[in-house]
Amino acid sequence: MNLSRLAAEAGAKGAPVRAGLIGAGKFGSMFLGQVPTIAGLEVTAIADLSPDRARAACRAVGWDEARVASVAFEEDGAALAARDDVDVVIEATGNPRAGITHAQAAFRAGKHVVMVNVEADAMVGPLLAQQAQSAGVCYSMAYGDQPALVSEMVDWARATGFHVTAAGKGTKYLPAYHAVTPDGVWAHYGLSPQEAQAAGMNPQMFNSFLDGTKSAIEMVAIANACGLDVPDEGLGFPPCGVDDLAHVLRPRDLGGQLQARGMVETISSLERDGRPVFRDLRWGVYVVLEAPNDYAAACFRQYGLPTDDTGRFAAMYKPFHLIGLELSMSVLSVALRREPTGSAREMRGTVASVAKRDLRAGEVLDGEGGYTVWGKALPVTRARDALPIGLAHGVALVRDVPAGAMLRLDDVAFGDDPALTLYRAAIA
């Protein structure tokens, strides 16, 4: 609990942490908005496909012209990673292929990486973490996003001697959402297409949150970082409020809905008939823990911790996450402590592409949140031949795939794709 002091001391010594941001979208902009009030942290370079858009983002979050002028603006993320005035590279593009390229460029340059790009992390994070270790640098999840926050809660539970039964987040979910396309997304957010366009909202990105893909990506990232399991049939999205976490997210043989202990799961803020869940956790994260012995279970009761009816399962939760507003925690941690705020360790899960409708040979897939596929979290042992959602963009089908079927790697035509090579190595 001394990160702000360490950063301030570094700044006072004339050696502030110097961050380079790749991707000045919403997440990156939220981070940029906090930087002026954090002693000992500077942003020295920003890379974006449109440097003018990146400059506009800086001004939109309140930067004065002097601060904007102090930053080097680049188009090439790999070039940013090679700069001598960057200590930590923040990869926030959301493009998994770009994320892999930028991370590897940073490792070659001896730079730490904070991977906001969960799409890249869920696909090949364990291998990137190994490459970072070999380069003598840190590879970290992004604090403020759910996977890092859940990893912190899991670590707390294990460090205090509890068994982790389940961990995950909340979201708005109904089974019908899997088939939603960008054309129909705004009605589910209570917006008109005109309102969304005026706010600069990307329909495909927002649809990835709705159709279950983003939840799958985040749960796989958590499983891979925390050594937890992905349900054999994919996420169940059980409706559940914060008061019922310990009841619902326990093993089925005890009356819960988990396949087994030690699982990731996303809970829904909607009942299956569309009614809102009481005291939902739509914006938050949770961990369900189990007392390791009778004495600990008795302490739960004595200190007023809500439990299930056995008295052995309890839940901790955080009702919100502030994404980019909290990102500096990761940047400062890797630079000053050389400690990641969560990091992929092993490939426990993958995110398989599932056809939203009947797909025909020759069609080009449009990836996460699009018109063709949605992402389903599965154990990697059951889906080694699945086409991961991170590679399901800009590739053509070589055969027909019916609606609801899982796409396989040999269903599409790949050219020379380094990301595919790395993915095959990750799941081997």
Question: What does this protein structure show overall?
Answer:
The chain has 428 residues and is of the alpha/beta class. The protein has helices at residues 3-12, 26-34, 51-60, 65-69, 77-81, 96-108, 118-135, 146-159, 185-188, 193-198, 203-210, 213-226, 245-248, 294-302, 328-337, 418-427, and strands at residues 17-22, 41-47, 72-74, 88-91, 112-115, 139-141, 163-171, 263-268, 285-290, 313-318, 349-355, 364-366, 373-379, 393-397, 412-413. The protein folds into 3 domains: 3-144 and 324-337, NAD(P)-binding Rossmann-like Domain (Rossmann fold, 3-Layer(aba) Sandwich), CATH 3.40.50; 147-173 and 212-320, no CATH class; 349-427, Type Iii Antifreeze Protein Isoform Hplc 12 (Alpha-Beta Complex). The chain has a 6-stranded parallel sheet, with helices on both faces. The chain has a 4-stranded mixed sheet with strand order 8-7-9-10.
List keywords for this structure.
single chain; about 425 residues; alpha/beta; Type Iii Antifreeze Protein Isoform Hplc 12; 3 domains; four-stranded mixed beta sheet
The overall average pLDDT, rounded, is 96
Q: Please summarize the sheet with the most strands.
A: 6 strands, parallel
Q: Which of globular, elongated, flat, extended, rod-shaped describes the shape?
A: globular
Return the structural class.
alpha/beta
Determine the fraction of residues in helical runs and give it as a percent range: 25-40%
The proportion of residues in beta strands is 15-25%
Number of helices: 16
**What would CATH call the architecture of the largest domain?**
3-Layer(aba) Sandwich
- What's the arrangement of strands in the largest beta sheet? 3-2-1-4-5-6
CATH class of the largest domain: Alpha Beta
- CATH homologous superfamily assignment of the largest domain: NAD(P)-binding Rossmann-like Domain
CATH topology of the largest domain: Rossmann fold
DSSP E strands, number: 15
Quote the distance from N terminus to C terminus: 39 Å
Poorly predicted regions are none
Radius of gyration, in Å, reads 21 Å
